[in-house]
Write a structure and sequence with these properties.
The chain folds into three domains: 157 residues, Butyryl-Coa Dehydrogenase, subunit A, domain 1, CATH 1.10.540; 114 residues, Beta Barrel (Butyryl-CoA Dehydrogenase, subunit A, domain 2); 145 residues, Up-down Bundle (Butyryl-CoA Dehydrogenase, subunit A, domain 3), CATH 1.20.140.10. Helices cover 46% and strands 13% of the residues. The chain contains eleven helices and ten strands. The strands form three sheets. Strands 1-4-5-8 form a four-stranded mixed β-sheet, with helices on one face. The protein has a four-stranded antiparallel β-sheet with strand order 2-3-7-6, with no helix packed on it. Helix 4 packs antiparallel against helix 5 and helix 7 runs parallel beside helix 9.
Length: 429
Amino acid sequence: MPAKTGIQRGVRRNLYERPWIPAFAGMTKEGSLPKPANTTDEVHMPDPQLSAAETAAIEAATAFSRDVIAPNARAWELQRAMSREVMTQAAEAGLCRLLVPRDMGGEGLSLTAMSKVMEALSYGDFAAAFALVVHNNFCRSLAANGSPKLLERYLASSCAAQTIGSFLLTEPQSGSDAANLKTVAVRDGEDWVINGEKAWVTNSDKADVLAVYLQTDPSEGWRGIACVLVDRDTPGVDLIGPYELMGGHAMAAGGFTFKDVRVARSQTMIATGDGFKAAMGGIDVARVVVGAMCSGMLKCALDVAYPYALKRQAFGQAIADFQGIQWQLADVATDLHAIDLMVAHAAGAIDAGENVPLPAAHAKKFATRAAQTGLSQCMQVMGADGYKHDFPLARHLACVKAGHYMDGTTEIQNVVISRSMRRQFGDEG
C-alpha cells in the first residue's frame, strides 16, 4: 500500500470489541468523530487468516473512511453527487485495485479481506463504498478476462482511477430476470453496432469506460450474451440521470442509451457464450460484500445511538438506564453479531474454493433485513434527534433499503434458499 496514506498499524477496539471497525466510534454529529469514553487504547492483533497486505488494505480503508468519507458524506448526499476526486484519493490509498492479482499490480485480496474493507468504508457511507465496489469489480473483471490489448489500454489507468469503469447488465425491463437483455450488438465487418438501453449503472456520472453486457444472438438466449467495453465518449452513447433517489446519491446510479454505437470487435472483453456466466459468476461474492457493508452501517448506528443514550437524560436518569432501551440495543447487537458470522462463513467458504450460493443468499438476506430493522431501532432510541440529518442514521437507513435490491433482491435470495430446501427434503422441484 502507498506509504503516504500514513496508516497506523493497529486498529483500536471499539465498544463491541469487533475487529477492523474504524477507530472513530461514538460519532455524535455528521462528520464529527470523537472517541467514545469507554473505548480502550488496546491494539487488536492481526487476523492470522489475513496477509500483511490484506491487513494494510483494511487499515487504509479505515483511515479513508474516517478522514475522507465520514466528514463529507452528508454534503455528497445534499449535493446529489460525489466528486471524481474522491475516486482519485481512494486510488492513492490503494483502494481501486483491491481485487486485481498482485502480479498484475493489484492487492489480490481474499473475499474475507475485501468484506472487511467494504465494512469499514460503509461505516462512513454505503453509497461511496458501493461506488468503489463497482469500480474494483470492473478492474477485477478486466484483469481476469481482458485481452493483452485491453489490459494495456485500460488496466493501469483503472487501478489509478484515471479511468473509471462501470458495469452495465441491468435494463429497464429485466431487473431480476438478468438474462432478458434487449441491448443488441450486430456484427458489421470488424465492428459491433450497438443499440439499446441500460439502467441502474453505478458511477454513471463519472464513468470513462462501460462494460456493456449485450445480446449478440437473440436466438441463443443467455448463450448469446457477450461483454463489450465501450468508451463513454463514443458517438451515440448518452447518459440518463443520475437518478433522483431516496438516498445513496454518492453512487451516482443512472442509465445509458446506445444508438447505432460503433465499436471495434477487439473491444470484446468476454466472448459470446461466456458473458452471462461471467456476470453471474461473481454474484455470490457480491452478495457477501453487501452483507458486510450492512454490518458497517449497523455498527455505525450502534456507535451513535449507545453513547447518545448514555448522555440523554429523561425522568432524572440517562435513558440507557431504562431496561427497554438496553434490550432494544441488545437486540441490535445480537443481529449485528449474526451478520458478521454469516458473512465470515460465506466469505471463508468462497475463499476456500467452495460453491456457496446458499450461505451467500442467507448472508445478504439476513444482513439487509437486520440492518434495516436495527437502524430504525437505533433511530427510535434517539427519539426525534435520530430523524435529523445531523446524524448519519437517516442516511444509512436510506442506503440499506437500496441494499435489498442490489445483486439480487431479497425475493431472489428466497428463491435460492427455497430451491436448496427442496433438494434437502428430496424434491428436486
